[in-house]
Amino acid sequence: MKNIKKNGQVYFRIEEKTFNGNATYLDEAEEAWVGKVALYEKYYGKATKEVIEDWFSLSRLLVVKIP
Questions:
Q1: What domain range is 13 assigned to?
Q2: Going by DSSP bridges, is the β-strand pair 17-25/9-14 parallel, antiparallel, or unpaired?
Q3: Over the stretch 26-57, which tens digit does the pLDDT of each residue have?
Q4: Which of 12, 23, 43, 55 is packed most tightly, with the most Cβ within 10 A?
Q5: What's the structural domain count of the chain?
C-alpha cells in the first residue's frame, strides 16, 4: 500500500486465478464515498455518514484497473 504512488503495478490472487493490474488511490470525493458506503453496508448494514467516515478514518480506497 505504501508504494502505490511510486509504482502502481499490482497482482493478486482470488482462489486459483491470478490478476495483474494498475492500482491508484481513489481520491475523488463522490466516487470514494460511494465505494465506502457500498463496502460498509456489505459487512455491517446501513449507518450514518459519521459512522462510515469514522470506520474509514485510517483507510484509503484503491482502484485496480485490469487490462
A1: 9-65
A2: antiparallel
A3: 877 888 889 899 999 999 999 999 999 999 88
A4: 23
A5: 1
DSSP type of residue 15:
T
Write down the pTM of the prediction.
0.64
CA atoms within 13 A on the CB side of 2: 0
State residue 35's pLDDT score: 87
- Per the domain annotation, does 58 fall within a domain? yes
Q: Which amino acid is at 50?
A: E
Handedness of CA 35, 13, 10, 59 (dihedral sign): positive
Q: Radius of gyration (Cα) for the chain, nearest Å?
A: 14
30 in any annotated domain:
yes
Compute the distance between CA of residue 36 and CA of residue 53 in angstroms, rounded to an integer: 8
